């Protein structure tokens, strides 16, 4: 599974074998079962996760216990409660497994140490965070300007593989509609 | 105005005089009048802007000519159509001045060259993009979970200085309500 991470990093910055040995020394492997929490609301968030396999949802639970899904993640995606991770404060979000999940994880202090030891990793993370920022801006624009029907159709076009694996109730929570309303939408 | 940029960068990474001379050599000064466009929808976006003074809005105009405001920016903030900037494609957004604005600007090729020449600038930009990403995630969550009334109150608390300077019609376009509906909201 370290090979996945190497290919993933090398899609942005090339690494020598020695450099990759250094990079991988900062990561630990973790295994999670379906429904297990990788990040738990109200607790400290020790890790940023690179998903080797599996599927997760990043969730905010409001005062009335309603779940709002901020993001899904699967193989080759990174996820955690980044606000909590970078500020080392308690999580306001939860990261829950929708399938058995294998992840490589890195602490914040190891993240800083790795970037200091191998500055090209800063370039890699800059590229990844920039892509995440652009995706967030597209989602904001989509929330401001499109209907739920249009957002559902965008999701089908942009992430067909995700749609196959995520239960419909979770898709509904991501779009902000009830399960029943989602059935009525359907792809046109 | 280069002093502003130096203080701004040094709030994250320290620079020697020589390093700062190098950094500033990659930036050009530009002056814009109120209502002038720094980025124009449908045209290429040459620059990422660091605002020395002034106020801007980043706008998406939909098929029915309705304006949706993605972000405001003022002194010490960065802004452009980042999707267009990083992919060197035509802008889908416009960046318009709401006041006379002075900005330091950098092209994408100079951005890459600067990061190559001075890797600590990669750390600076990584920190800035991460903050932008976190702010975007908070806005998504806010759009998913709060009412327009709550979003207006959040804006008053988080950006009081902005509220003083941005016309109410623009605040309404940011919140996604009509000017009349905004008057009825008022701060509680």
TrEMBL record, chains A, B:
SUPFAM superfamilies: cAMP-binding domain-like. Pfam families: cNMP_binding. Residues 30-115 form the Cyclic nucleotide-binding domain. This is Crp/Fnr family transcriptional regulator.
């Amino acid at each position: 599974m370290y090979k996945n991470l190497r290919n993933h990093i090398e899609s942005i910055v090339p690494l020598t074998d020695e450099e990759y040995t250094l990079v991988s020394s900062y990561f630990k492997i973790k295994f999670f079962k379906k429904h297990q929490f990788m990040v738990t609301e109200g607790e400290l968030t020790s890790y940023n996760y690179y998903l080797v396999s599996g599927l997760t949802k990043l969730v905010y639970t409001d005062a009335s216990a309603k779940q709002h899904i901020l993001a899904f993640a699967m193989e080759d995606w990174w996820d955690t409660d980044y606000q909590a991770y970078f500020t080392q404060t308690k999580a306001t979000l939860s990261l829950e497994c929708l399938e058995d999940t294998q992840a490589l994880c890195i602490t914040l202090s190891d993240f800083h140490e790795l970037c200091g030891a191998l500055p090209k990793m800063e370039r890699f993370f800059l590229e990844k965070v920039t892509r995440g920022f652009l995706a967030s801006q597209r989602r904001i624009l989509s929330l401001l300007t499109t209907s739920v029907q249009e957002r559902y159709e965008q999701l089908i076009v942009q992430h067909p593989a995700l749609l196959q694996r995520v239960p419909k109730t979770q898709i509904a929570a991501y779009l902000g509609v009830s399960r029943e309303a989602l059935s009525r939408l359907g792809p046109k």
